[in-house]
Amino acid sequence: MKIFQLSGNRAGQYSIRINNQWRICFTWCDNNAEQVEIVDYH
Question: Each residue of 20-33: pLDDT tens digit?
Fold first, then answer.
């Protein structure tokens, strides 16, 4: 599993790839994941 730091309009967020289409995107705050969402990247 790889965690990617995002840029552009998602700067400050990170993502984990579920598969080729879906990602879990989130921000880190005080060692906790916040603003967690599942995103369709295609």
Answer: 999 999 999 999 99
CA distances from 19 to 22, 29, 31, 33 (A): 5, 25, 25, 20
Strands 22-29 and 3-5: unpaired
C-alpha dist (Å) from residue 20 to 4, 23, 29, 35:
14, 8, 27, 22
For the cut 80, the answer to whether the pLDDT of residue 42 exceeds it is no
Contact 42, 21 (CB under 8 A): yes
Q: Which amino acid, one-letter code, is at 5?
A: Q
